[in-house]
UniProtKB/TrEMBL annotation, chain B:
Superkingdom assignment: Bacteria
Record keywords: Membrane, Transmembrane, Transmembrane helix
Protein name: Uncharacterized protein
Chain ranges passing through the membrane: 28-46, 58-81
Automatic annotation (TrEMBL), chain C:
Modified residues (4-aspartylphosphate): D53
Keywords: Phosphoprotein
Keyword Ribonucleoprotein: no
Protein name: Response regulator
Residue ranges of domain Response regulatory in the record: 4-120
Length: 891, 95, 131
């Protein structure tokens, strides 16, 4: 019998391999449409029903009545209420190319890898016992068939080992065929769908056999149920509601469910079908549980394991074929769970633990030069084997005893700790990474303390005394009666406390922390996913080389897919070249494609590494593993960049305005210079023609006209001298004639020269001779030229009725000489251009050609000082400041 | 706006009859899980007395009846939402 | 009776040159050098021809021209405008304000004389200032 069973087992396994292989082949030929029907999607969800539920539901019914149903009711409600949560999860999963629960949480909270590692850890801890449970159920079912043939402990281990190895092999082959998780595992999903049909069919067959074959028909069976010890409604109300809630929460958070529900989802409309079809499936799965339990209790000998009624009932009735079918149902339940769980966990482990570590320790630049694709695949495969073997180890270590029976709920409560962060993340924009961290850690700790560690029994991992009196005798902290809740069911107690503390920590942490820019961006994208399923993310850099990105993408996606992607994107951009331009949109698309293979956090870091171009170094590569730091650097850099941009823009605007003003002034200057040149030339020409053409001019007249020509020629020369002077100063060709002299002497000379220059208006000049007693070591002639110009300007432009100029000297760190008049000053908008050449404040106030102050500035700059306009002094005020070492104060 | 059905982004105040129905179906989809939860929590009010308590056969009929009802309602909602939506951008989003 | 010319110009040397040229031709030349009071001077002087510089202290030649064209008493007065800036824009502005003739500095004395004579004989001068 046992050998037949092994043969059947192997045949069934081969059948599954064939199905998966065929599905892969069909998909490869592009005919995957029917493989991806809503029915297949719905059936793949059935991995929720594991061996624990296939066999265990009957056992649970025997032990606690209808409670087993609550495990199915929770997920049914979640599916029926798909419009609330699942619809959003699936849309987010598709638009953000989410690869796992950990990836979802990490993506939402600013692509924090640390968070992803936390969720991964939680998932592994929560799932490992569950895998062990599956292995145990397969072993137990083998045992049931052996009836008489005693399987010794050693062999028991062998069965589990063989099953584990076979499952690992299957998963490695079909779970890591294509790297991009978003290309989906056609073979695996198909095999699982088939298994879903097998287990449903097996359970229904057993049920039908029990009700109509053994129970004597429907009414008869119902009567027998009423007459049995399960005959009336008895249940712990708290558990009924609590288990319903717990199973609903776990359904959303279980890595394997997330894998088929979100990651493998091919089309959002499939969810609509699943919304009614999956509850129907669950209903059918649980329909015959109570009849099987009751009839089993009736017919099977006292002390039979009710967990195996599904198997032993047909067996005891001599229905070998039905029993084998039933065995295959249980086998299917166990294997499909392990396969998908291994894929889901391996994705998490490789994306969030192995890859970041590899990136950290691989040589610099490895993302481009090394073959990442191989590394990722290897990481995946090793992770799969690791996860399955971990389950096996757990099974061996735990001894496969009663402790495993409760592990289903323990596991549920563990993974449910992700729920607050997940739901908060997709519904509440204010949810922050700090909150998610706080909640997860608190929930994890409480779950460990109140449920996981105690689940091994008193004295195993937790001292016995703690159960009775609390740690260190603190009664309020008893693991199963925290804060005095001693009457509560341990499961509910743990679920209540862990979720309360988790949610509280999550909300509080979110409220008090301030999310980083990327978190806020992702938050908005997640919460408002229906408003903008594709909204831009913040890639600002444009230095990345398309070739570099291409090379990297090839390493990860494979050459063909990468080329296709790049060609498609290049075409989308208008087909200017074989490679697309590195636009933010393109980077975003690429990043999402890569995210499907290596996870959002790693993809982001990899693209960032190339996009950052020269500015990204080995340090950035190192920072991948600790993405918190990396993101902080990134956003800081972004901020710095945008600040710099804003500054540059402001400078540009300023420069532009200045240029515009200068251009206007240059026009005005050309006009002015034309006027200045033509006016003397007019006189020169007119009088030279008069001298030439007019006969009979008197000597006096001739002399007079000739001297006018002479004066005007000098005026022309002076203008040209000024222009030349400025040009020489600007080109730095001037030689300074450094001498020592008193400041007051220089001022004296300047005042005298300015007065002699144009004797038109009277200008009162006030000076403070005491302060002027400063010995200067500089080019005194040039300095005096500056002073003359400033005094002449005051005379020309000061518009007070009694013009007055005050020259004040202050010696400090620098020597400052101020020329302040009592006129109306220079208008604010003109203040920054008056030192430019060609600049004249107003062309109505005729005067120089606008070169004076430009020359002054050039000279003072040559002398090592500067000249500025001092606003707010009443009149026009110019300050000449010179370095103090030019000045040696007189004794 | 000259003519034609209002596009996404400018939610109109009044919807055409079909769109209106569709909105109500969405509301129904939102209510459904609460209805289910409520009905399935009703057993909490039942007596647990072996003599006068509810018989298991009745429990089975009730629980699975609710289950069937939910499946049918969910099926109807899925069907109603699956029909092409006239001028309404807020469908289930699948295409 | 000799024709009467009013010259409004601020450069003393140019005033002297033009006065000399026109007086030698038998014209009576009166001069004025302040832009702000130019129009009053004009109303008082009632010349047969006005020679007007563009850049004057206080008021530009264009403004003076616009005002005298708006005044019926002087609307038909022939006006010769002088400018040292010599850009086409200046010429266009002057023509818009209704100038009779326009001349860039520096000018040939003969050219000045020809233009003045033509204006006084009521013959509109075409494109003065070109050889």
């Amino acid at each position: 019998m046992l050998n037949t069973l092994v043969a059947v087992c192997i045949a069934y396994a081969l059948f599954l391999f064939a199905i998966a292989f065929a599905a892969e082949r069909i998909a490869a030929h592009g005919q995957a449409r029917w493989l991806r029907s809503p029915v297949v999607y719905t059936l793949s969800l059935s991995i929720y029903c594991t061996a624990w539920t296939f066999y265990g539901a009957v056992g649970s019914a025997v032990r606690s009545g209808f409670e087993y149903m609550a495990i199915y009711l929770g997920p049914s409600l979640v599916l029926v209420g798909w419009w609330w949560i699942l619809r959003k999860l699936v849309r987010i999963g598709r638009s953000q190319r989410i690869t796992s629960v950990a990836d979802l949480v990490s993506s939402r909270y600013g692509k924090s890898n640390l968070l992803a590692v936390g969720v991964t850890l939680l998932a592994v801890i929560g799932t490992t016992p569950y895998i062990a449970l599956q292995l145990q159920s397969v072993t137990l079912s083998f045992e049931a068939f052996s009836a008489g043939e005693v399987i010794v402990g050693e062999e028991k281990g062998h069965t589990a080992l063989w099953v584990a190895a076979g499952l690992a092999l299957f998963t490695v082959i079909f779970g890591t065929r294509n790297l991009d998780a978003n290309e989906r595992h056609n073979g695996v999903v198909m095999a699982i769908a088939v298994e879903a049909v097998v287990k449903l069919f097996a359970l229904l067959a057993v049920g039908v056999f029990v009700v109509w074959g053994l129970g004597g028909g429907l009414t008869e069976t119902l009567a027998r149920i009423d007459a049995s010890e399960l005959g009336h409604w008895r249940i712990d109300g708290g558990r009924w509601a609590g288990v319903m809630l717990l199973s609903a929460a776990a359904f959303l958070c279980l890595p394997r469910i997330f894998q088929v529900l979100v990651v493998e989802n091919d089309n959002e409309t499939h969810l609509r079908t699943a919304s009614w079809a999956f509850p129907l499936y669950l209903g059918l799965m649980s329909l015959f549980v109570v009849p099987i339990a009751v009839i089993g209790l009736d017919l099977l000998p006292e002390g039979s394991n009710p967990d195996l009624f599904v198997l032993t009932l047909p067996l005891s009735q001599g229905q070998g074929g039905l029993a084998v079918l039933s065995f295959l149902g249980g086998f299917s339940s166990a294997t499909s769970m392990v396969i998908v769980a291994a894929i889901a966990l391996s994705t998490m482990v490789s994306n969030h633990v192995v890859m970041p570590l590899w990136l950290r320790f691989a040589e610099p630049g490895a993302t481009v030069s090394g073959d990442v694709r191989t590394v990722v695949l290897l990481a995946r495969r090793l992770s799969i084997i690791g996860v399955v073997m971990l389950g096996y180890l757990y099974y061996r270590l735990s001894g496969g005893g009663e402790a495993l029976a409760t592990i289903g709920f323990v596991s549920f409560a563990g993974v449910a700790q992700v729920l607050p962060a997940m739901l908060g993340g997709i519904f509440w924009r204010g949810a922050s990474k700090a909150g998610a961290f706080t909640g997860l850690i608190l929930g994890f700790v409480v779950w460990n303390y109140t449920l996981f560690l105690p689940s091994f029994g008193p004295g195993v991992l937790m001292p016995e005394a703690w159960f009775a009196h609390g740690p260190f005798g603190i009664g309020f902290l008893r693991p199963q009666a925290m804060f005095g809740l001693s009457d509560m069911d341990p499961l509910l107690h743990a679920f209540f406390w862990s979720m309360s503390v988790n949610t509280g920590g999550f909300i509080l942490g979110s409220l008090v922390s301030f999310p980083q820019p990327l978190e806020r961006l992702q938050g908005a994208q997640f919460v408002n996913v229906f408003e903008h399923s594709t909204s831009p993310r913040s890639w600002t850099g444009n230095v990345a080389q398309s070739e570099d990105l291409m090379i990297m993408a090839q390493r990860i996606l494979g050459a063909r897919d990468a080329q296709e992607l790049f060609e498609r994107e290049a075409e989308k951009q208008g087909g200017r070249g074989p490679l697309p331009d590195v636009t933010p949109q393109f980077l975003e698309t690429l990043e999402r494609e890569l995210a499907g293979s290596v996870g959002a956090a790693t993809a982001h870091a990899m693209v960032g590494q190339i996009v950052g171009g020269m500015s990204v170094s080995v340090e950035d590569l190192m920072a991948v593993a600790d993405e918190t730091a990396q993101m902080m650097e990134y956003s800081a850099r972004l901020e710095a960049q945008s600040q710099e941009l804003a500054r540059t823009a402001a400078q540009l605007r300023e420069a532009n305005a200045k240029l515009t003003r200068l251009s206007v002034q240059k026009d005005a200057f050309l006009s002015q210079i034309s006027h200045e040149l033509r006016t003397p030339m007019t006189s020169i020409r007119a009088f030279s023609e008069i001298l030439r053409d007019t006969s009979g001019l008197g000597d006096a007249e001739k002399t007079k006209y000739a001297s006018i020509i002479h004066d005007e020629a000098i005026r022309l020369t002076r203008l040209l001298d000024d222009l030349l002077d400025l040009s020489v100063l600007e080109n730095g060709q001037v030689n300074l004639n450094l001498r020592e002299g008193l400041l007051s002497d220089v001022l004296d000379r300047a005042v005298a020269a300015a007065a002699a220059d144009e004797a038109g208006r009277r200008l009162e000049i006030r000076r403070d001779r005491g302060a002027e007693q400063i010995v200067l070591h500089t080019d005194l002639d040039r300095l005096s030229q500056v002073f003359i110009n400033l005094i002449a300007n005051a005379r020309k432009y000061c518009d007070a009725p009694r013009p007055r100029l005050e020259i004040s000297v202050r010696a400090g760190a620098r020597l400052a000489i101020d020329f302040t008049d009592n006129g109306s000053g220079v208008a604010a908008e003109a203040q920054d251009v008056i030192f430019e050449k060609f600049s004249r404040v107003s062309d109505q106030k005729a005067g120089g050609a606008g070169l004076g102050l430009a020359i002054c500035r050039q000279i003072v700059t040559r002398l090592g000082g500067d000249i500025t306009y001092v606003p707010g002094r009443g009149g026009a005020s110019f300050r000449v400041s010179l370095p103090a070492d030019l000045a040696i104060a007189a004794q | 706006m000259s003519e034609g059905s209002p596009r996404r982004g400018t939610p109109p105040v009044f919807l055409e009859r079909q769109s209106y129905r569709r909105r109500r179906v969405m509301d129904g989809a939102r209510v459904l899980p609460f209805l289910g939860a409520l009905l399935w929590l009703v057993p909490l009010l039942w007596q647990e007395d072996p003599e006068q308590g509810v018989r298991s056969s009745a429990v089975i009929v009730y629980l699975f009846g609710v289950w069937l009802l939910l499946v049918l309602l969910a099926g109807f909602v899925a069907w109603a939402l699956g029909r092409p939506a006239p001028g309404d951008g807020l469908g289930s989003g699948g295409e | 009776m000799s024709k009467h010319v009013l010259l409004i110009e601020d450069e003393p040397n140019i005033i002297e040159a033009i006065s000399f040229i026109l007086s030698r031709d038998g014209l009576a030349v009166e001069t004025h050098s302040d832009g702000t009071t130019a129009n009053e001077k004009l109303r008082g002087a009632r010349p047969d021809l006005l020679i007007l510089d563009v850049m004057l202290p206080g008021k530009s030649g264009y403004d003076i021209l616009r005002e005298l064209r708006a005044d019926p008493a002087t609307a038909a007065l022939p006006v010769l405008m002088l400018t040292a800036r010599g850009q086409t824009r200046d010429r266009e502005m002057a023509e818009r304000e209704g100038v009779s003739a326009f001349m860039s500095k520096p000018f040939a004395n003969s050219e000045m004389l020809d233009t003045v004579r033509a204006l006084l004989n009521g013959v509109p001068e075409e494109a003065p200032g070109k050889p």
